[in-house]
Design goal:
This protein has one domain: 3-Layer(aba) Sandwich (Cytidine Deaminase, domain 2). About 25% of the residues lie in helices and about 20% in strands. It has three helices and six strands, in the order βαββαβαββ. Strands 1-6-5-4-2-3 form a six-stranded mixed beta sheet, sandwiched between helices. A hairpin with a 4-residue loop joins β2 and β3. The protein is globular, with a radius of gyration of 16 Å.
């Protein structure tokens, strides 16, 4: 017997950066600065990310492309891995993602690989990570958990083995 299920997507959409608290505007600005330093000679699609740790430290990252395309890395994972390499038990409170040259009026959301990495971090820190996705002169999407971006996600519970701890 089958049953119909729904997945709801809950988020806030702010009209622009001006309506956000100062610390959120600053995080978006740091992501914008990081995007300007991205190495994207192939796609010309520069992305910046900046995250704030629970303790207040801020780490930024940008996409780094490579002629061997799979060897490149997205801005979100660059920032996340940089933070976790020096603060392995740290908690990411918020992450801002900005694509300064985006076409259209909708902020860019993380790719599938980044969504998986961000969900893994939420599980690792056993708490939600807030996301701010913005464009320079337009709206900001605010999500209160990455889990919202990747419902029915894959995690360590799906792997074989004795009593795998959820990370």
């Amino acid at each position: 017997m089958s049953s119909n299920r729904k997945i709801a997507l809950h988020y806030l959409q702010h009209a622009n950066w001006k309506v956000l608290p100062k610390e959120d505007r600053e995080l978006l600005e740091l992501a914008t600065r990081a995007a300007r330093g991205a190495y994207a000679p192939y796609s010309r699609f520069k992305v910046g990310a900046a995250l704030r740790m629970e303790e207040g430290q801020v780490v930024s990252g940008n996409n780094q492309e490579n002629a061997s395309f799979p060897a490149g890395i997205c801005a979100e994972r660059t920032a996340l891995h940089a933070a976790m390499s020096v603060m392995p038990k740290g908690t990411v409170e918020s992450m801002a993602i900005v694509v300064p040259q985006v076409r259209g009026t909708r902020p860019v959301t993380p790719c599938g690989i980044c969504r998986q990495a961000l969900v893994e971090q939420e599980r690792r820190q056993e708490g939600p990570m807030r996301l701010l996705m913005g464009i320079l002169r337009g709206p900001v999407i605010e999500m209160f958990s990455v889990d919202t971006l990747l419902p029915l996600s894959f995690d360590s519970k799906n792997l074989p083995g004795k009593s795998r701890k959820r990370v």
